[in-house]
Amino acid sequence: MAEKKEGKTASALSAHPQPPQQQPEKHPQPPSKNVKYAFAALVIIIIAGAAYFYLLQPPAEKEIPLAEFRGSLNLTQRAAVVQDLRGMPPGDAQARSALQNCGVQLSYGLSTLGKNVTNYALEGESCTAVAGSEIRTKTVAECLSDISSEGRLMFAISYNSTANKTSLFSGRALFSGDAGFLSDCAITTIIR
Question: What does residue 6 show for φ and ψ, rounded to 5 degrees?
C-alpha cells in the first residue's frame, strides 16, 4: 500500500505541475546623468538659438505719416537725391528721362529750402555722386554708406512698371513708378 501512496503522490504531482518560475519584471533604467545633461544642453541651445534669431531680426520698417516726414525734413540740413536707374528697361529713353528730370526737380526744390544736397545716380554696380561741382564714381554700397554716415535724408527715385507709389519712412522717401508717374514727379509736393 505504501507503493500505491507513492504512486498517487507522483501522479498527483504530475497532474498539477508547478508553475514555471517567473522572471522578475525588468523596469526601464532611468537615463544616465550624461544623457540628462546632453538633453538639457540641447534644449538650452535650441532656446538660445531661437532667442538669438528673434532678437536680432530687424523689425519691419513702418511707413510714417507725411507730417512726421516733413518734421524730419525741417530738422535736417543734409539731403540725398538718389536716381536709381538699375531697374530701368533697356532702351526706354522716355522712362529714363522722366526719372532723371524728377531727380533734378527734387534736388532743386531741396536746395531752395537751404538743404545741402548731394545727387547720386545708381547704374549697374556703380554710383556717380555729384556734390556741387565735385563728381565721384564709387560702388553702390559706398554711396549708400556715405548717405548713412553723413546723416542725409534720402529721397530715392526708381522705375517700377507694376506699381506707382510714394512711401515715407524715418530717414528716407521712396518714389517709384512708370514713366508717366515719374514725369508727374509728385514727390516734389512733399517738400513744399
Answer: -65, -35
Contact 122, 140 (CB under 8 A): yes
Enter the C-alpha cell of residue 177.
Answer: 513708378
Instruction: Enumerate the domain spans of the chain.
Output: 66-191
**Is the CB of residue 160 less than 8 Å from the CB of residue 176?**
yes
User: Which helix (DSSP H) or strand (DSSP E) does residue 123 occupy?
Assistant: strand 116-123
Query: Burial letters for 84-94: b for 16+ Cβ neighbours within 10 Å, e otherwise?
Result: bbeebeeeeee
Give residue 61's pLDDT: 85
Q: Tell me the backbone φ, ψ of residue 82, rounded to 5 degrees.
A: -110, 115
φ and ψ at residue 138, rounded to 5 degrees: -140, -175
How far is it, in rounded angstroms, from Cα 99 to Cα 85? 8
Instruction: Please give the CATH architecture assigned to the domain spanning 66-191.
Output: 3-Layer(aba) Sandwich (3.40)
Query: Average pLDDT in the 61-82 region?
Result: 96
pLDDT at 47 over 90: no
